[in-house]
Design goal:
Length: about 475
């Protein structure tokens, strides 16, 4: 990065491209824009380089986009609640934002999210609905959907999202980008505007990158972990980036689908194709089975419902705004009841954590006994779906429950003619509509071991190269 320095004119060109892209595609992916501030920052960086003869840091002059929940001093963070509009500009940067600034980055936009940040459609009544740049009838995903759409259009090459059930990965799945969900506490998370209360032994959210390449995912993770992020976030686990040697031959576990949630034809076809390509390239593919996909999702949503005050819904009630349609299909109390939710007692909290520990042990044992380097698995039953019907994130939230890092690699797209022979006489959830999802991006998800992001990105890079060949 240090040999490639952005100048003010370069950044101005990029901002013009962004504005053109957003006008052309009308994705509504942005929330806050501060282009003048970004240009001023670029001029300061240019001056520093001229006077000092060296860049501020390894991200010198690189424009980086941010999910709306990240606080940027002097900018608003409404996170899609109309009741938060009155809060005005925030007074301090989030921990990760401050690190990016110190590394030399140029911050220029924040991006759209769903109301409550707990849905797969980035839709709220402050900024509207973000649509998919590939097809406007499809969701851009959530809750980092604005990031996914912006990066898919190359309005950003590197952006930061958050993930507690798939919120980094789902937008990558829907928009066809690369993404990394790191282990919780590997990257700093503190200082954001949150829709909910603090953690109570539930599933920890994490921050992570979306990008146009695996290389850039690794770059961001390496730079941030190597600056001792505990200095700005007491919740970070001190774990500097390790150099690991890539393996010549990967041993990959393949978890294909849960019988209750059959894969849509485009996903089944592209996942099968990925496994065949990897096998042909000399890598080992080991079929694995787990019935935990549904159980983990039920457990996760019971944990998400632990707040007796339902704080996020209080923020909605405070303004009288309606609940977005996508939220009604994923996170409302009647859905918790459907999946076994009951008001939580102290005994119930113990029970939930015991269930999670059993799942963690199940997957630790599975990985150790199989000897796999990583797991190849779908990111969702389907591709990006029509608005408000994405459904529950079974294939992503599982890895939040056991806290395993995971990457998304775009691979192929939905094609009715090619997908026809993969149609089965099953009940697809959500419903499969081949015409609606034609040309939607497809992907594979690569899962690694807890706190082993270094090995994961090495495996992901090798897999991505094989799939791109």
């Amino acid at each position: 990065m240090q040999c490639m320095v952005w100048k003010r004119s370069d950044l101005l060109d990029i901002l013009h491209i962004i504005i053109y892209s957003l006008t052309s595609f009308s994705t509504r992916c942005l929330t806050e824009t501060f282009f003048d501030r970004a240009l001023q920052r670029a001029e300061e960086l240019d001056r520093h380089l001229r006077e000092k003869g060296q860049p501020v840091g390894p991200l010198h002059g690189l424009p980086i986009s941010l999910k709306d929940c990240f606080n940027v001093e002097g900018e608003a963070s409404t996170i899609g609640f109309t009741s938060f509009i009155k809060n005005g500009p925030v007074k301090a940067n989030s921990a990760l934002v401050q690190i990016l600034v110190d590394l030399g980055a140029v911050l220029y936009v924040k991006t759209n999210i769903p109301q409550t940040m707990m849905a797969a459609d980035s839709h709220n009544y402050v900024f509207g609905r973000t649509v998919n740049p590939h097809r406007a009838n499809l969701t851009a995903g959530g809750s980092s959907g604005g990031e996914g759409a912006l990066i898919a259009m190359r309005g950003s090459v590197l952006g930061i999202g958050t993930d507690v059930a798939g919120s980094i990965r789902i937008p990558a799945i829907c928009n066809g980008t690369f993404a990394l969900r790191p282990s919780a506490d590997r990257l700093p998370y503190a200082g954001q505007t949150s829709p909910s209360r603090g953690d109570l032994m539930g599933i920890k959210p994490c921050a992570g990158p979306l990008a146009t390449s695996v290389r850039d995912l690794a770059l961001l993770a390496r730079l941030v972990t190597n600056v001792d992020p505990w200095q700005v976030d007491s919740g970070v686990t001190y774990s500097p980036w390790r150099d690991v040697k890539p393996k010549a031959v990967l041993r990959l576990g393949l978890i294909q689908e849960h019988a209750d949630f059959p894969l849509h034809p485009p996903v089944l076809r592209t996942l099968t194709d990925a496994a065949e390509r990897l096998r042909a390239a000399g890598h080992e593919i080991i079929p694995l089975e787990s019935r935990a996909i549904r159980d983990a999702c039920v457990l996760a949503f019971r944990m998400f419902a632990m707040d007796p005050a339902k704080t996020a819904f209080q923020h909605i009630s405070a303004s009288g705004e309606p609940i977005i349609p996508a939220l009604a299909s994923t996170a409302l109390p009647h859905e918790y009841m459907k999946y076994g939710y009951a008001p939580l007692t102290l005994e119930g909290l113990y029970d939930l954590n015991e269930q999670r520990n059993h799942l963690k042990e199940e997957f630790r044992s599975l990985l150790v006994k199989s000897g796999v380097d990583a797991i190849l698995t779908p990111g969702h039953q389907g591709t990006a779906q029509p608005h408000d019907v994405y459904g529950l994130p079974f294939h992503t939230v599982l890895w939040n429950v056991v806290d395993y890092p995971a990457c998304i690699i775009p691979h192929g797209k939905a094609e009715q003619q090619a997908d026809a022979k993969y149609i089965r006489d099953v009940e697809y959830k959500p419903p499969y509509d081949p015409a609606a999802v034609e040309n939607a991006p497809c992907c594979v998800q690569v899962v690694g071991r807890h706190m082993r992001e270094e090995e994961l990105v090495q495996c992901t890079e090798i897999i991505a190269q094989v799939l791109a060949a």
